[in-house]
Amino acid sequence: MAVCGSACGSNCVPKDTEGEEGERLKRLSLEEESSVRRCTKCAEEEARKECNGLCAGCFRAYLYGKFKLAVTSNAMISPTDKVLVAFSGGPSSRVALEFIHEMQSKALACWDASNSQALPVFTVGVVFMEECNISDELSDQADDVIAQIRSIVSGLSPPSKDLHIVPMESLFSSDLRKLVGSINDATGREDFVRHLRMLSLQRVAFEFGYNKLVLGLSASGIARHVLSATVKGQGYSLPADMQYVDTRWKAPVVLPIRDCLEQELVTLCNLESLKHVQVHDKRCTSINGLVSSFIARLREDNSSREHTILRTAGKLKPFNFNKFSSNQYEYVPSRLRPKFQFIETGEPESPEVLCPICASPLTATELATTRCSQQMKGLNIKEMEAFYLSCCQSCHFQILPKEETSMSCDGFFDLLPKPMVKRSLLRLVVSYSMHFSTFTTTTKPFVPNKLG
Amino acid sequence: MEGVEASEKVKRTTPRLCSLCNQRKAALRRPKTLEQICRECFYNVFEDEIHRVIVENNLFKPGDRIAIGASGGKDSTVLAYVLSELNKRHNYGLDLFLLSIDEGITGYRDDSLETVKRNEIQYGLPLKIVSYKELYQWTMDEIVKAIGLKNNCTFCGVFRRQALDRGAALIQADKIVTGHNADDIAETVLLNILRGDIARLSRCTSITTGEDGPIPRCKPFKYTYEKEIVMYAYFKKLDYFSTECIYSPNAYRGFAREFIKDLERIRPRAILDIIRSGEDFRISTTTRMPEQGTCQQCGYISSQKLCKACVLLEGLNRGLPKLGIGRKKVCSGEDQVQSKRHLENKALSFHGKHGNVEWKR
Questions:
Q1: Which of A64, A267, A376, B246 keeps 20 to 30 A from B307, CA to CA?
Q2: Side-chain half-sphere of A417: how many Cα atoms within 13 Å?
Q3: Contact: A236, B282; criterion CB under 8 Å
Q4: If we measure between CA atoms, which residue out of A184, A124, A178, A194 comes closest to residue A156?
Q5: One digit per residue, pLDDT tens: chain B, 361 residues?
Q6: Would the CA dihedral through B360, B353, B249, A308 be positive or negative?
Q7: Beta-bridge partner residues of B146
Q8: Is B262 in the A-facing interface, judged by CB distances under 8 Å?
Q9: CA A68/CA A92 separation, integer angstroms
Q10: Strand-pair category, A245-246 with A253-254
């Protein structure tokens, strides 16, 4: 029974449609007048303004769908994994935690219902890193924050999750506050705290037996990282920190909400009343702060700018450590396995040499300079000199002490956490043994006293 | 606290010596390195760095005919001055010419052209002027009247590139040099990241481009800071035209420029770091990159069937100002009525809230 609506103008609506159809049409036209928009996906619920034309339910499903796609298509979590979620209290990591909890609950329900119960359900732990004693942050709110975090995590069961609240300075024997305070450059200080944070998270994962680390890094966070790294001259190593998977570490780092914008995650927290800790905005005089405000301005001009930045950086070549080795894909369905076991044709890549502070791969120029200096110093090289030589140019400029700083090179080196120093010694040995044939002098390879 | 203030006061009254020669009084602080140096040392280090860039990158060979893209602005004036100085001092053996483009912007270009004509006399370099009117039969003023104040930089830039090549061909030049400085290149790197132009991102940091084409072009000022160019021109009292293009306030590049200015204040070497990042970017082999071909209409270098200049010009001549702007939805072979209607629908969003020209869906 076709209805021409108002365009016909000849009042040709048949009388028998004035039942349900008429009611529905009346409702629709009333709604058009009162401008109530329906969700573009399900057309049932009211569309929310902040959800890009979707209703709350579809919006959540859209974000969860992105999360699930990232996890499954990159084989991020296997049934036997013990996953550690780094929870800062902010909205991004809150959503990551929520989604992982949902995934775990669903897996548990399947396991309960299944007959064989052959594949176990992955376990999840949560870690909150206390940094207030290291940088100049407000420490009086720390207790409130911790209490909130405890209540958040305890509410996320079943299955229950271990919560580790770890003060960063308890993990290493050196005076981290003095070390961080000795760095003159504000950007260098922030970046160094970030590197310490990763080192600490890895330490916690190792101590408690976790084999994967989940970070709540969103697309907006990655866009900020892309611009900051470009501005600091780290164009070569930029792709390393922004891929779904990063196996440079003992506990590989995975980014399941990499495709979600921060705005979307904040909206979700508000819609679902997900408790999170307000991260207070510090007035930053650092490059990272400048990049943040720049991206905020770009976002006001065009809300999809962050996605474009992510897409551009996604076209840069990732490193060989940005995917799992093939034997870690045994739980992936066999139809998907060839995707991961495919080896890129071309010359086999030699393993990258990493900076001991920031773990970024060194460029060919940096490597050449390092080797040249190492060659010149020969056997008389001090441990401290060897360490400094193996750092990247960005860490050299913004983190390592220079002549004008208050602390001497030796003093700074003595305060560095031992795991960071150990990384450099290992790399030295690896690079020397690998490329010994390129040396033209008869210098014997440098062998450090302690590898630990 | 007081002690620090007192010692700072003492610093200001005693004359500081140049940190390079330690003989003369320091007259300025070098923007790139923040060193306090004297004028003579500044000239030396400025000119010497450019000379090293030219030599290390093999930009020229003896006997080359070089067309200097001259707009009358600070970059091209300093470029003309420094190149002719270094040409004499180090015996490059180059034949230098000034090549100027008249886009037809009243109140801006006509004034700056007077400056170039003076430069011709001051530096003794022959001048050739090529205008948009004679090449394309459109001046920028007419173009802006037709399309408005958004995207006019696209037209100007695309047309100027071709105009420079045509002008250089007319004077039988072997190379074109432009005054693009470090700030320009850093802005371009950022812009290409923001706009998702991976193809340009891979090319924009090269010091020489178009080597496989008829007339390559290079940028000797690639590592020279804009602030230092201004300082050099000021101290040497060079004659240049210092007003910004009257149509430029709406350019998207303004975002990147403001950011870079703020960045330079925090960390001056960040500009060079951006350029280094741009050089170090490695594009994934699975990314589709455009292939280089030639335009079917004019034979100019192009990655599409028709070069951008031809597409834009066709748009102007047919009264379709958005042809060639934004993502490709209308190809030039389409029915005129259909394309006009299509564009009329989009014209509603032309001056919309965000004013951006990207197709939304």
A1: B246
A2: 22
A3: yes
A4: A124
A5: 445 555 444 455 677 889 999 989 999 999 999 999 999 999 999 999 999 999 999 999 999 999 999 988 999 999 999 999 999 999 999 999 999 999 888 887 778 889 999 999 999 999 999 999 998 888 888 888 888 887 888 888 899 988 999 999 999 999 999 999 999 999 999 999 999 999 999 999 999 998 877 899 999 999 999 999 999 999 999 988 877 788 776 677 888 999 999 999 999 999 999 999 999 999 988 888 888 888 888 888 888 888 888 998 888 888 877 777 776 554 444 444 444 454 444 444 344 344 444 443 4
A6: negative
A7: none
A8: yes
A9: 16
A10: antiparallel
Write down the residue that tokens 């009117």 correspond to. B133
Could you give phi then psi for residue A299, rounded to 5 degrees? Answer: -65, -35
Residues of A with CB under 8 A from a CB of B: 185, 187, 226-227, 229-236, 238-239, 285-287, 290, 294, 297-298, 301-302, 305, 308-309, 311-313, 315-318, 344, 346, 363, 394, 397
Q: Which residues contact A310 (CB under 8 A, 6 or more apart)?
A: A219, A222, A223, A226, A242, A259
CB atoms within 10 A of CB A352: 18
Report the 10 Å Cβ neighbour count for A335.
7
Which residues 6+ apart lie within 8 Å of A334 measured at CB?
none
Tokens of A441: 């002098």
For A366, name the nearest residue in chain B, comparing CA atoms only.
Answer: B280
CA distance A166 to A177: 16
